[in-house]
Design a protein that fits this description.
By secondary structure, the chain is an alpha+beta fold. It has one domain: Lipocalin, CATH 2.40.128.280. It is built from 3 helices and 9 strands, in the order ααββββαβββββ. An 8-stranded antiparallel barrel has the order 1-3-4-5-6-7-8-9. The longest helix is centred in the N-terminal third of the chain and has 21 residues.
Length: about 190
Amino acid sequence: MSRAKLLLLVSFLAPTIASPILAAAPAQDKAMRHSETVSDHAVVPKELIGAWTLVRCDNVYPDGHRVELYGPHPEGMWLIDAQGDYMMQIVRAKRMPFAVNDKSKGTADEYRAASMDSNAHFGHVSADANVMHSHILRASFPNWDGKSGDSSYTIHGDELTYSVAKPSSGAAEGAHGEVVWRRVRS
């Protein structure tokens, strides 16, 4: 199956996959999610809905230099449904496998690399004007569970770019995050 067909298939399956995941969240998250999504669902711009593939994910410094957080040519997918529920995953393109083929028996270095080389979360996104509002229900980085934030964003053609004011991964003072996605077209 071609990558484009696979991505299209995943975009159609996303609501089916997301529903059981969201249903499995603890009761307090369900209540929190319900109160937020009832009001936020009305403000999901049509331009955000769909499947997106990652172009880049960098920290950008005041002097203009960039640090590629997931190395050159990172891979990722971001699926956003019509209600603003989303699933996102970003991974380093070249990752080292664990020496032992058992993820419960990795070394400290293997666990660190696995953590730093991937980022996954799901939650809700909405937007108004050029500001995207996100609420993360669960994330591979547990410090993000339950966090909300706003990011400026632009869409030019099939590319969506958003900024993260204070990146949580390896950024010195003054740096901001920049994430670029390309819309998957069928």
